[in-house]
Amino acid sequence: MKQKKGRRRRILLYSILSLFICVIIYSSLNFYYFTSPLVIDENKSIWANHIIPPNNPLENDIEVDIAVIGGGYTGLSAAWHLAQQNPDKRIILLEAKTLGSGASGRHGGMVLPILMPHIPIDTSEIADLKLLYDTSVKNIEKISYIEKHSGINCDLVTNGFLFPVFKKSDIEPMKEFVRIFKGYGFPLEFLNQEQLKEKLGTKRYEAGIYVKDGGTVHAMKLVHALKVLNEEAAVEIYEQSPVTEIIEAEKIKLKVGEDAYTVQADHIVLATNAFASKLGYFKGCVMPLHIITAASEPLNDDQLSSIGWKSRLPFADSRIELYHLVLTPDNRIVIGGGYSNYFYNNDLNFKDDLNEAAEIAKKELFEIFPELDGIEFDYVWNGVIGVTADAEEIYGVTGKHKNILYALGYNGHGVNTSILCGELIAGLYAQKQTEYMRINDGTSGFLPPEPFRFIGVQSYLKYARWYDEQK
Ligand SMILES: Cc1cc2nc3c(=O)[nH]c(=O)nc-3n(C[C@H](O)[C@H](O)[C@H](O)COP(=O)(O)OP(=O)(O)OC[C@H]3O[C@@H](n4cnc5c(N)ncnc54)[C@H](O)[C@@H]3O)c2cc1C
Fold first, then answer.
1. In terms of pTM, does the model score above 0.70?
2. What is the CA(213)–ligand 1 centre distance, in A?
3. pLDDT tens column, 199-234
4. Cα of 15 to ligand 1 centre, how many Å?
5. How far is Cα 208 from Cα 297, in angstroms, rounded to an integer?
6. What is the DSSP string of 352-391?
7. Residue 332 DSSP symbol
């Protein structure tokens, strides 16, 4: 009797285990072979008030040299650089909705140089980090060039940014970071709490770092400026033209829109960032993370002087789910951070309540500037960023025929880097190696399939929130 009971228990246990393994295998296969649909929701950001004249969709089959997929900064920069360097090539850009519908048209307004505030174990790494920093600063000069030569005023301000330190325990490591990096020529200044308050007006932070480079830009005006330069360089831009299928071959075929027009191209550029998995690419290394940003009503003169944000410098703090704040030319505060979410199977539908999510940012805004208690948000918007395992972008050449160029996964720091990566893509097309490529090889670690991805991200987000609450 006892033996029978034991056997029954073992069978039950094995059955449950087998069922569990089947569910895991099914979920993982499902993740790789079935894709939830491409969703690009309406851009409700403050920047979307700037209207860019629309372009027509693709309405016939065509053959081109290069087809760029995605009308954000990566795609626009890649197309422009490719056109400048290859004036004899026919280059088109296909955008699923309108230019700037993705992160490029709805970001937080900060243009940052590449700076990783940590002390590397191997100090020889710092010289390489300096090269990345300098390359990214040169790229900010390029954004200035784009503004000037397009004739579109992008509200670009580049007198630096602040990195406030949230935790007391981070003060000494950050002081040491500044000391070491200054020795290598990084233009950094450590600020104690009083010095930081002098620039920002807030006592929310323990200390801060002033970085001489970087600044702010109007998201959509920069998209507009890039569009102007692309059209001057004879790039054909098609909007409302989603690519639905990529058929790899020597001459690659794209299916576009509901009428399935065919584009044949020698090369394509995948500039679809957080949306790339919907075309079947980079599921294993880039995932979409949903974040939100808000813009306050304009501050009046009294409110502005009461908070004491004298420097008007933008800032992004040292928390994991960091807060970033920008003061616009018309004295609104654009604030992002404190909320992020991942939805099962790389789902692009935003499933939370936007206003509830924005309340987190509002609460923090009042912590930073208690003088503003009661101020309302005029705009609240969501967006997706492409996240990689090691928080660095990926770029390179892929496909059976090595004719798919790509750059994506900027981890929420892509305003500057995506434009830089557009130039990198043109370099890859010309088979040019650069120092940037030597230091940052464009690869990233592996992100597990479902259900592990969902469980892992949700656990990490819970940890991040707990960690960020500890002062
Ligand atoms: C809310 C928010 C705040 C942010 N704040 C900052 C910040 O302050 N500073 C900073 O440096 N970075 C910030 N970022 C990140 C930065 O905006 C992005 O890294 C950068 O804009 C990425 O540009 P991209 O061109 O690669 O991608 P995107 O701008 O997302 O462009 C991808 C484009 O591809 C199109 N597309 C997708 N699939 C297809 C298809 N099948 N066919 C055709 N077209 C397709 C999309 O419609 C989209 O226009 C923020 C991002 C978000 C979402």
1. yes
2. 22
3. 999 999 999 999 999 999 999 999 999 999 999 999
4. 45
5. 27
6. S-HHHHHHHHHHHHHHH-GGGTT--EEEEEEEEEEE-TTS
7. P
Place of tokens 């390179």: 396
| pLDDT score recorded for residue 140 | 98
- Distance between CA atoms of residues 344 and 353, nearest Å: 17
Distance 411 CA to ligand 1 centre (A): 10
pLDDT by residue (tens digit) across 448-467?
A: 999 999 999 999 999 999 99
CA of 287 to the centre of ligand 1 (A): 13
Q: Tell me, what's the pLDDT at 1?
A: 61
Inter-CA distances, 272 with 10, 148, 171, 410, 445, Å: 50, 27, 38, 12, 19
Q: Is the CB of 283 within 6 Å of ligand 1?
A: no
Write out pLDDT tens, residues 62-73.
999 999 999 999
Q: What is the DSSP string of 50-79?
A: SPPPP-PPP-S-EEEEEEEE--SHHHHHHH
Q: Who's near 47: CB < 8 A, 6+ residues apart?
A: 100, 105, 106, 107, 109, 218, 219, 220, 221
Tokens of 49: 């008030």
Does residue 101 line the site of ligand 1, with CB under 6 A?
Answer: yes
